[in-house]
TrEMBL record:
<protein>
    <submittedName>
        <fullName>UbiA family prenyltransferase</fullName>
    </submittedName>
</protein>
<dbReference type="Pfam" id="PF01040">
    <property type="entry name" value="UbiA"/>
</dbReference>
<feature type="transmembrane region" description="Helical">
    <location>
        <begin position="265"/>
        <end position="288"/>
    </location>
</feature>
<feature type="transmembrane region" description="Helical">
    <location>
        <begin position="132"/>
        <end position="153"/>
    </location>
</feature>
<feature type="transmembrane region" description="Helical">
    <location>
        <begin position="106"/>
        <end position="125"/>
    </location>
</feature>
<feature type="transmembrane region" description="Helical">
    <location>
        <begin position="12"/>
        <end position="34"/>
    </location>
</feature>
<feature type="transmembrane region" description="Helical">
    <location>
        <begin position="40"/>
        <end position="61"/>
    </location>
</feature>
<keyword id="KW-1133">Transmembrane helix</keyword>
<feature type="transmembrane region" description="Helical">
    <location>
        <begin position="82"/>
        <end position="100"/>
    </location>
</feature>
<keyword id="KW-0472">Membrane</keyword>
<dbReference type="InterPro" id="IPR000537">
    <property type="entry name" value="UbiA_prenyltransferase"/>
</dbReference>
<feature type="transmembrane region" description="Helical">
    <location>
        <begin position="199"/>
        <end position="221"/>
    </location>
</feature>
<keyword id="KW-0812">Transmembrane</keyword>
<dbReference type="InterPro" id="IPR044878">
    <property type="entry name" value="UbiA_sf"/>
</dbReference>
<feature type="transmembrane region" description="Helical">
    <location>
        <begin position="159"/>
        <end position="178"/>
    </location>
</feature>
<feature type="transmembrane region" description="Helical">
    <location>
        <begin position="233"/>
        <end position="253"/>
    </location>
</feature>
Length: 289
């Protein structure tokens, strides 16, 4: 099979890049960078670097797992369906990783190192850590470092507040567990036994949505406490946002305990992340240590 650089190939590559998480992580980074007052060019640079890194991680996942996805009949994977060559996806993964590294160099030393480590964590997961008990570690590292990338970027970048780093880390746990839940049977058939697999369906789901609640509380405390708390409408929205995330988490736990695992669980986490994005947008200077 040969693939010309056509619109169809680009579409298939995008579908292979795990576009939902890619877009969500990029938006989160851009919102944080905007909230702390970075100029537009820094926000744009952060967004471009992060989207390149996330594209590379998603593409590497589909390239490395091509045989496994084909064996279990993953109809949502273009590579598994034979719609695009493995080599094309591999090349795109390497190229976007290179672009991410180059763009990171312009973020400043702290943000650059943080982003390169973030991308490396994602690739380490794809390359084999997903099959081990420490499969959650790359997610904790990557999402914990995301605020560092966004806040430390640019010539006037600072260091993010501890609560922002902690929020990212626990949110990574929720992302990992809910993303894996629908694939537990397929993963077991192909020898993948990561952290969520060893916990089991119910325990993993409870850990995932419990992590969401922890993230919501951390964001709420971060906004209402400290030396520069939000006031007025911002405080009201902070409380409402936390309540919404807790409700979504409760719905998620109920679905885990009463029905088969579906992609709805992951969508609940994505929806919660968008609520947290809005909250972080109002956090402003509180995001900076």
């Amino acid at each position: 099979m040969t693939d010309a650089p056509t619109a169809s190939t680009v579409r298939l590559l995008f579908a292979s890049s795990h576009p939902g998480p890619t877009v969500t992580v990029t938006v989160l980074a851009a919102v944080i960078a905007t909230a702390v007052g970075h100029p537009f060019w820094v926000v744009l640079l952060v967004a471009l670097a992060v989207v390149a890194g996330q594209l590379s991680i998603g593409l590497a996942n589909d390239w490395i797992d091509a045989d496994r996805d084909r064996a279990v009949g993953r109809s949502d994977k273009p590579v598994a369906r034979g719609l695009i060559a493995v080599g094309t996806v591999r090349t795109a993964a390497v190229v976007t990783a290179g672009v991410a590294v180059v763009l990171s160099l312009f973020l400043g030393p702290v943000a650059a190192v943080a982003h390169v480590v973030l991308v490396a964590a994602g690739w380490a997961y794809d390359a084999g850590l997903k099959r081990t008990v420490v499969s959650v570690v790359p997610f904790i590292v990557a999402f914990g470092l995301l605020p560092v990338v966004a806040v430390a970027a640019g010539p006037d970048g600072g260091w993010p507040a501890t609560w922002a780093i902690a929020t990212g880390a626990v949110f990574g746990v929720a992302i990992h567990c809910t993303n894996v839940l629908p694939d537990l049977v397929d993963d077991a058939a192909t020898g993948v036994r990561g952290f969520p697999h060893r916990l089991g369906l119910h325990a993993s789901g409870i850990v995932a949505f419990g992590s969401l609640v922890v993230a919501a509380v951390l964001v709420l405390v971060g906004q209402l406490g400290g030396d520069d708390p939000v006031r007025g409408v911002g405080a009201v929205l902070a409380v409402l946002g936390a309540v919404v995330v807790v409700v979504l988490a409760a719905v998620g736990v109920r679905l885990v305990l009463t029905g088969p695992p579906t992609r709805t669980l992951f969508r609940l986490v994505i929806a919660s992340s968008l609520v947290l994005v809005v909250e972080l947008g109002f956090a402003g200077a509180a995001l900076v240590a």
